[in-house]
Amino acid sequence: NAQFALKRAKGSGRVEVYQPGEVSKARHRFSLETELRRAIESDSLTLAFQPLVNLQTNKVAGFEALARWEHEALGLISPTEFIPVAEESGLIVPLGRWALETALATLARWDAEHGAPLPIHVGVNVSAIQLARDDVSSAVENALRRSGLRGDRLTLELTESAIVQDPERATRTLQGLKGLDAKIAMDDFGTGYSSLAYLQRLPIDILKIDRSFVTGMLGDRDSVAIVRAVLGLADALGMDTTAEGVETIELAHTLSALGCGCGQGFYFARPLSAGEALPYWRSRSA
Ligand code: C2E
Ligand code: MG
Ligand code: MG
Ligand code: MG
To answer: What is the mean pLDDT of the chain?
Structure first.
């Protein structure tokens, strides 16, 4: 029957049957993995750069580098789709190194175009799987050396899961990164399972408040209370804050009034191409 395909269970002689739908899912995943490998090898991924705006001064504090994959036939594929494929296949290691190298090389190019080091940093996402499998602090050290940039121009964005999975390894890596002067941001803060003990113990510089709480502020008082509490916590621990998902002027004003450090979201700008970023910085720093 064409609806079914057989798969062999790993390590055993047992044969299982795919349910309809699973067949195409598995096939889709397989081809996405193959195509993603090819895209990484042929250097055809790109980075988009979304501004992080200082809510007190309205100036651009930095840009978050976000991977983009424009597939010839399938069009633009979202990172929420291809990052999990990269994580499951191990491709996240070369992809993560590529993102680091490219983000820093791009920032160095903007500096050169500007004629002086810009007062901005670049944020690069580091997946939990990448942290577990790669020597991230050596990768950062190499990328910094090649770009000629100082470590304090770089922020690594880690999620809570990166720490929870292997706290000892995460601690060593974070200490290595601090030794290079890089900054550490806790991404999507509030959605994971990390304990406050990690926040206290680890050298975390910035809490990025997850978009769900920020957009929730418009409608419910609980989200406002949560954001207020996170800002208080960050302040008490001496950390900076960035709010994700700032989609409206009301949110920007409310967050600014609550003392949030930076905002990122469609209200300020969507992720921009590398060529659009420097003009955007100029337009906001006049
Ligand atoms: P993230 O690190 O939390 O990045 C923020 C995401 O929120 C981006 O989605 C951004 O486009 C989106 N966003 C920003 N402002 C707004 C807003 O106002 N409203 C809404 N609705 N969304 C907003 P994007 O680019 O699709 O990336 C999704 C996720 O994929 C990222 O979440 C990050 O976890 C992952 N990712 C992207 N690039 C990389 C990469 O190079 N390496 C790794 N490991 N992960 C990456
Ligand atoms: Mg991020
Ligand atoms: Mg985030
Ligand atoms: Mg997020």
So the answer is: 91
- What is the rounded distance in angstroms from the CA atom of residue 63 to the CA atom of residue 273? 11
Q: How far is the CA of 129 from the centre of ligand 2 (A)?
A: 15
pLDDT digits (tens, 9 = 90+) for 3-25: 333 333 343 444 445 566 666 66
Closest residue to atom 43 of ligand 1, CA basis: 125
Please name the amino acid found at residue 274.
A
> Rounded to whole angstroms, how far apart are CA atoms 137 and 143?
10
What's the pLDDT tens digit per position in 116-174? 999 999 999 999 999 999 999 999 999 999 999 999 999 999 999 999 989 999 999 99
How far does the centroid of ligand 3 lie from the alpha carbon of residue 125, in Å? Answer: 8
Could you give the count of Cα atoms lying within 13 Å of 45 in the half-sphere of its Cβ?
A: 31
Tell whether ligand 1 has an atom less than 6 A from the beta carbon of residue 210. no
With the most atoms of ligand 1 within 8 angstroms of its CB, the residue from 40, 49, 66 to mutate is 66
Nearest CA to ligand 1 atom 44: 127
Q: What angle do CA 125, 128, 132 make, to 5 degrees?
A: 120
Characterize the bridge pairing of strands 154-159 and 46-54: unpaired
The minimum-distance atom of ligand 1 relative to the CA of 244 is 15
DSSP string, 116-156: S--S-EEEEEE-HHHHHHS-HHHHHHHHHHHHT--GGGEEE
ipTM of predicted complex: 0.98
Any ligand 1 atom below 6 A from CB of 271: yes
Distance 157 CA to ligand 2 centre (A): 5
CA distance 267 to 274: 19
- pTM here? 0.91
Locate 269 and state its tokens: 């700008």
